[in-house]
Amino acid sequence: MINKKGTKLILFSIIGIAILVLIIIVQKEQSINTTTPEVNVSNASQEENQFGLGYSIEVNNKNSNILNKENARLLMDSPNTKLDVSFDNRAKSGNFIMKVFYDYEEINFKVDQSKFNNSYTFELGKGKRINLPIYLSDKIKADHHSHKLTVSILASPEKHAKNIEAKTNFFGITTDYELFYNEAEREFENNKTYEKPIKLLNNAFTGLVISQDFNNFKEVPLPPYSTKVKKGERVKFSYRAGNYENVSDYLIMVLLDWNQVEMDNEKYKLLNIENTKVGYGTFEILAPKEAGLYEFTAYIVPEPFVNRTIENDDLIDQAYRFTLEVE
């Protein structure tokens, strides 16, 4: 004999579960597809896709005109002026991390209505563009000088070169803009001291390689996938850098696990390298105090404190990344 009351209870239970599952699915879909009026994802332009695999980046604000765009300049009403970062991903789908530097020092920033932080991570598919409205740290004050604003978006921050056995300096894109508060006041504070490298090399190489090779001066040896160090020790590295056309002044800065670390107790290293030569030298960083895997990378900036014109490229190169194994 069928218990009709029990049948109704089972039926209502099934209906209730179905409704709950439907609500969860809808909420999940809304969470995945939700965009704010300013943070949004769209298809990358077909014109950009003609360039093939790679990345594109642009920084603008309400004062951006054709001249400033062409010369990678940003006229700011104040340091709190909203900036729009547009990033196109024509490579693989995956995770990305954005870093921002003011005069080559890592700063906090916020995206849209998020909290201030020194990084911002997001996921983006291949062939997609993301627009990110950013606001710089409220500790920055307007003055009567030009500054450099560096915005870097790097791929696969959750991965380690050691584990995936990837040896590459192509894992993102970094742009270097001149930022100023008055068109008539575009001078940099010129009190910087540049050091000479230990050696000048004649290698047919342009860019930056950092490793622990201190002996091979005939070639530019790439770093291994990983390097083992002790907790809290001072770790010595070598650099081979430069050989950009008509450039003699450079800046190098280092990230460890996507955070800027000091080089010889300074935020960055300034180098004066003879034109057409590769400079060789050394520096030290302090290893983390906790064991683990830390991703190491670096940037090289030609003519770091020079006014932007259409003659000097705003895109800067990354070094080959590798993993620091702290034991």
Topology:
Elements: H1 4-33, E1 40-43, H2 46-49, E2 55-60, H3 66-70, E3 73-75, E4 83-89, E5 94-102, E6 105-106, E7 109-111, E8 120-124, E9 128-136, E10 147-155, H4 161-164, E11 172-180, E12 199-201, E13 207-211, E14 226-229, E15 234-242, E16 249-256, E17 259-261, E18 269-272, E19 278-286, E20 292-302, E21 317-318, E22 322-326
Parallel strand pairs: 3-11, 14-22
Antiparallel strand pairs: 1-9, 2-4, 4-9, 5-6, 5-8, 5-10, 7-9, 10-11, 12-19, 13-15, 15-19, 16-17, 16-18, 16-20, 20-21, 20-22
Task: Describe the model.
- The chain is mainly β and 327 residues long.
- It has 2 domains: 40-180, Immunoglobulin-like (Sandwich); 199-326, Sandwich (Immunoglobulin-like).
- It contains 4 helices and 22 strands.
- The chain has helices spanning 4-33, 46-49, 66-70, 161-164, and strands at 40-43, 55-60, 73-75, 83-89, 94-102, 105-106, 109-111, 120-124, 128-136, 147-155, 172-180, 199-201, 207-211, 226-229, 234-242, 249-256, 259-261, 269-272, 278-286, 292-302, 317-318, 322-326.
- Strands 14, 16, 17, 18, 20, 21 and 22 form a 7-stranded mixed β-sheet that branches.
- Strand 16 and strand 17 form a beta hairpin.
- The longest helix has 30 residues, at 4-33.
- The radius of gyration is 24 Å and the shape is globular.
- The model is unreliable at 1-34 (pLDDT under 50).
Keywords summarizing the entry:
327 residues; Immunoglobulin-like; disordered N terminus; six-stranded mixed β-sheet; 2 domains; 4 helices; mainly beta; seven-stranded mixed β-sheet
